[in-house]
Design goal:
By secondary structure, the chain is of the alpha+beta class. Helix content is about 50%, strand content about 15%.
């Protein structure tokens, strides 16, 4: 505690492995945790400095809140820390609204309580972060805008394609027939039937 501080030690202990598992202390690993905590703190400070309140709520923030909430309830603390790391890697250069940054601070409070308290004060809040409610999210933001689905031709999976979550049958057919990945298949034989089961699979009969 004296060398690394309470929050780094806490994050490391949470990240060491499953709650019910056996773990071995590693100085190298706790130094890695220390570097990440420092980077995430700096990330939130910089995000606040360049905040843009014209931005819509971030789906990545919503998904992070949902993930950490579920992991903490299930005592999966190591995967909660992993989710923070993945979020940082994907979003470190992005801008966020004030509301989303506040949600992020509230989300890290159970993991990094002292840092969250400091950030809550820096961002102009009067009362303790630990007296606030857990952040609410718009469930619609949890739905992926694009999904990857398998393409089956005459009963055999021939590949995958990325489509928008709410793509229509007509648009899907047009995309499929112009997709380079399937050009050879449809070069000589045109599909007799294209069946799309939304968000699940495309089945083609030729």
């Amino acid at each position: 505690l004296e060398e690394y501080g309470a929050d780094v030690t806490r994050a490391y202990l949470m990240f060491m492995g499953p709650y019910e598992g056996d773990v071995t202390w590693s100085t190298e690993a706790i130094n890695g945790a220390k570097r990440f905590v420092a980077k995430f703190y700096t990330f939130l400070i910089q995000a606040w400095e360049k905040r843009d309140d014209s931005l819509q709520d971030s789906s990545d923030v919503a998904k992070l809140i949902k993930k950490i909430e579920e992991d903490i309830i299930a005592f999966k603390f190591n995967t909660a820390i992993s989710a923070l790391m993945q979020f940082y890697n994907s979003n470190q250069s992005k801008k966020f609204s004030s509301k989303d940054i506040e949600r992020l601070i509230l989300t890290i409070a159970p993991i990094l309580p002292h840092i969250a308290e400091e950030l809550w004060d820096i961002t102009g809040h009067e009362f303790s972060v630990h007296t606030q409610d857990w952040p609410e999210i718009d469930e619609k933001l949890l739905i992926d805008k694009e999904i990857e689905i398998p393409v089956q031709v005459n009963g055999k999976v021939k590949g995958k394609m990325v489509v928008s979550f709410d793509i229509t049958q007509e648009d899907l057919e047009a995309k499929l027939l112009t997709d380079d990945s399937f050009a050879e298949i449809f070069k000589e034989q045109k599909p007799k039937k294209i069946i799309y089961i939304p968000q699940k699979i495309v089945s083609v009969v030729i």
